[in-house]
Amino acid sequence: MTTLRVMTYNILEGAKDRLDVVAAVVRAADPDVLGVTEANGFDETKRLKEVEKAFGMKAVLGRARSGFHVAIFTKPAWTVEASGPEFYPFFHAALWAKLRLDKDRHFTAVVAHLNPFSPDERLAEIRALCRHAAPGERAVLMGDFNCMAPGDDIDASVLELPRNILARFIKEAGDPVEFDRREIALAEWAGFVDVYRKMVPKKPGWTLMTTRFGAALRSRMRIDYMLATSGLAKRAMSAEVIETHESRRASDHYPLMATFDLRGMGTGKSEKWIPLEK
């Protein structure tokens, strides 16, 4: 194996009766590692096994009090050495997993679903996740962050949202409104790299909304992210928002995929894993 394909996908309330369509999107994309947000119902053993079979992958689950669970799915070649929830009290959930292909090729995958209502709470959540950007770490932080990034243009469709919804994304009310972009700015300051923006600097990269719900709330935003520590980010080969016939009707979010070059990774020396705080 010379490449690593990582995908993040908000599948909308556990995919419910859309599992066949969501699975078709996943299988066509063929990720090695998949971070799922809105894994609703996956805490039921029967449902989780059904999803694992549909995706052709094994899962570890991060439970959320809200019921909006998160999960990390892996292909058989990758071993899950350890996994667990983040201890900060997330509105939804965040999950980490230490994944290993062989002696030298290993990294930490983290999937998170950040607070959909409060910029200040999102900032606190992303601050807790910045521990994975410690020097010498190999980590990918992905998921639905419900926020906008520095430098991203605001599509006109966003400004047409009702103000009670728009309030979730703004830092200051006014004319024009000031959108809150502190979450990604903090993650980048701490050492993460926005892989999609690094690889695709000129496209908007909208991950929300798909055409599934017709004209209702057809706002276009980039709120799903793939962040990587600097060493992994340097190995990024490509990044794309997967927009296909199937993905347009599978969920309200499009999946985001990044491919990394594994050739020559590692020195044979074991790298430090960050211990969880007790």
Give a quick set of tags describing it.
278 residues; alpha+beta; Deoxyribonuclease I, Chain A; six-stranded mixed β-sheet; 9 helices; globular
List the helices and strands and how they pair.
Elements: E1 3-10, H1 19-29, E2 33-37, H2 45-55, E3 58-62, E4 70-74, E5 79-85, E6 93-100, E7 106-113, H3 119-129, E8 139-144, H4 156-159, H5 163-166, E9 170-172, E10 178-179, H6 182-190, E11 192-194, H7 195-199, E12 224-229, H8 230-233, E13 236-241, H9 245-250, E14 256-261
Parallel strand pairs: 1-2, 7-8
Antiparallel strand pairs: 1-14, 2-4, 3-4, 5-6, 6-7, 8-12, 9-10, 11-12, 13-14
Helix pairs in contact: 3-6
Give an account of the 3D structure.
- This protein is of the alpha+beta class.
- The chain has a single domain, classed as Endonuclease/exonuclease/phosphatase (Deoxyribonuclease I, Chain A), CATH 3.60.10.
- Helices cover 23% and strands 28% of the residues.
- It has 9 helices and 14 strands.
- The chain has a 6-stranded mixed beta sheet with strand order 3-4-2-1-14-13. It has a 6-stranded mixed beta sheet with strand order 5-6-7-8-12-11. Strands 9-10 form a two-stranded antiparallel ribbon.
- Strand 6 and strand 7 form a beta hairpin.
- Helix 3 runs parallel beside helix 6.
- The chain starts with a strand and ends in a 17-residue tail after the last strand.
